[in-house]
Amino acid sequence: MERKKGTAIVLAAGQGKRMGTKKPKQYLEIQGKPVLWYSLDVFQRSELIQEIILVTGAGEIDFCRELARSAHIDKLRAVVAGGAERYHSVWNGLQAMESERECIVFIHDGVRPFITEEILRRAYDEACRSGACEVGMPVKDTIRILDENGRVSATPKRSLVWQIQTPQVFASELIVPAYRELIAQEQELLSQGVQITDDVMVVEQMCGRSARMVQGSYENIKITTPEDLKIAEVLALDTIPLFC
Fold first, then answer.
1. Cα-to-chain-centroid distance, residue 239
2. In the 8-state DSSP scheme, what is residue 133?
3. pTM over 0.90
């Protein structure tokens, strides 16, 4: 398989209101290190990644540059400001890439600190084969679908239901045109009530392409609430010694 350049776009522009803290959750500390540090470090150490684009709040660009410097993230190509919606932030990151050609793009939430090289490798290989993939895990519990009145309307087959994680990974020649078209049609889509919440949806909506699923990890959690931070403190005990 031809080896393609890997670019990681790390999203760290959220406010994290559900965390209930003044400091954005990506800068809260787990075992003495910012949440954001963990994923940046994995991308820095991965042989699959040649450049990192960090997307953050407009007022946090200097802080993030200093964080990357202190963490020895020398693959960092750019720190750019995010936008009003997640898809705006991704588009800003895509525009900061060195090249749009022959590249595999990893789009990752900076508040998922426990990605691994194994996850990156599975996603990279699949994106090279099919052009689009997402990381996820089978759900452990039965899922109910409710109607607008709060009554159960369906129970999907559990073996077919997966919870989605990041990174979501794409060939650049697919994801860049898809986002360019999304931005061009944004107002029309909004008027139709179309809501875009992740990158696979952009490819589905704009290109009619489905993504393949690859296995992530149940430890690849998203830090959203104080309870998640407590879990992360325990998971990090097995992580930090590997990076020191």
1. 19
2. E
3. yes
